[in-house]
Amino acid sequence: MFDPNIFDNLKVGIENVVYDLDNLDEVIHVIGRVDLLDMAVMSRSFSLRFELVQQPMTSAEIILETGLRDLATEILEISEGQPGCELKLRFYKHIADVSRECPVISQIVEEIWKPELRPVQTISYTYGNDSPQLHNTIELRFPRKINEEQMGDIQNMIEFMLRTLGELNRM
């Protein structure tokens, strides 16, 4: 019989909360889903990207990843290992003025997510456009691996993501 691993359990937990907000509560729209198994390095990756209903200016993405070492530690029940998954959150926003908007974005994110989770902002644009539009990818990386013990935190985490989206849309 199939015994789901940490990655699968967390993935299902995230899907349940996000798709309920999309289909039942109609608070968000899921605009992207990725579920990958990379056979070259035996890793798994899952992400869901969504935006608030009627507010497509900013979107958010939850990214869950695990690699061979964590999968093997769990499946082989290696006692000295602590299997888990990496969790990243990303927010995508168009901006016009880097020097003015990026500090405001940092402040918004740090107020919601605590100063320990410092946002990393990556600015990009398409070369050759007459008036290039700046794309800001705001990433939060959790400092440690997560496992099923954090399953109860998924609902709160997504509520924080919704709050962040709302604040980023208001600026």
Describe the structure.
- The chain is α+β, with helices and mostly antiparallel strands.
- Helices cover 35% and strands 33% of the residues.
- The chain has 4 helices and 6 strands, in the order αβββαβαββα.
- A 6-stranded antiparallel beta sheet has the order 1-2-3-4-6-5.
- It is globular and about 55 Å long.
- The mean pLDDT is 92.
Write the layout of secondary structure elements.
Elements: H1 6-24, E1 28-38, E2 43-52, E3 55-66, H2 68-75, E4 86-95, H3 98-113, E5 120-124, E6 134-141, H4 154-170
Antiparallel strand pairs: 1-2, 2-3, 3-4, 4-6, 5-6
Helix pairs in contact: 3-4
Number of helices, counting only DSSP H or I runs of 4 residues or more: 4
What distance separates the N and C termini?
A: 51 Å
Q: Give helix % range.
A: 25-40%
N-to-C series of helices and strands: HEEEHEHEEH
Calculate Rg over CA atoms: 17 Å
Largest sheet composition:
6 strands, antiparallel
The order of strands across the largest sheet is: 1-2-3-4-6-5
Shape category = globular
- Residue share in β-strands: 25-35%
Average per-residue pLDDT, rounded, comes to 92
Q: Which class of secondary structure composition applies to the elements? A: alpha+beta
Which runs of at least 5 residues are low in confidence (pLDDT < 50)?
none
